[in-house]
Design goal:
By secondary structure, the chain is of the alpha/beta class. The protein is built from 8 helices and 7 strands; from the N terminus they run E-H-H-E-H-H-E-E-E-H-H-E-E-H-H. About 50% of the residues lie in helices and about 20% in strands. The chain is globular, with a radius of gyration of 15 Å.
Length: about 190
């Protein structure tokens, strides 16, 4: 749920985009500005935009922006951090953000975390002055609050906290559908 504002090295940037075929296939399953090679995330986001008006609005804001977001899951080991968004780079008229979700989460909680982090992406998308990690930090020092966990350059926003809660509440009305979508994606073995 907390945001580091770190710039990735060029090598990390290349690693993230190392398999363009997977990225293109995933983008087709999701949207053009929100991408993932993780089938569980693709399934949850696809269902989430159907069942949550809040998530649908957030996704529409990102889709109409110059921000490209890559979402993945992995074990996050920083205490108190369940998800994070990281500004990667600005190039070619696009801004790139990476979202990581702790792989221990599933179902409606996973959808809530996605809503929370995608709200941060929408906040970045709505602020054209954000073009590097310094401008992200300056933006959140002005508009957000410093996170008490995970280091000095982690920030939070009231809007992201509220969005995550709304998305999770929307999803709770469809919990069996969310869990079924996650189960089908796991059976496919493409996480």
């Amino acid at each position: 749920m907390y945001r580091p504002v770190r710039m990735f090295s060029f090598a990390s940037f290349l690693f993230m985009f190392a398999n363009p075929v997977v990225a293109q296939e995933s983008a087709a399953r999701l949207h053009t500005h929100i991408r993932s090679a993780n089938s569980r995330l693709c399934a949850v986001i696809a269902l989430g935009v159907k069942v949550s008006p809040t998530l649908r609005t957030i996704v529409e804001r990102i889709e109409s922006s110059d921000v490209i977001t890559y979402i993945d899951m992995r074990l996050l080991t920083t205490p108190g951090v369940a998800a994070q968004s990281q500004f990667v780079n600005a190039a070619g008229g696009r801004r790139y953000v990476r979202v990581l979700i702790d792989s221990r989460f599933n179902g409606t909680v996973l959808l809530g975390l996605l809503g929370h982090e995608l709200q941060h992406v929408a906040e970045i998308a709505g602020e054209p002055s954000i073009v590097d990690h310094q401008s992200v930090a300056a933006f959140y020092r002005r508009t957000g609050l410093r996170s008490p966990v995970g280091g000095a350059n982690r920030f939070e926003s009231a809007a992201a906290i509220a969005a995550g809660r709304r998305v999770m509440n929307d999803a709770s009305e469809h919990a069996s559908d969310v869990n079924a979508a996650v189960g089908r994606a796991k059976q496919g073995g493409h996480e």
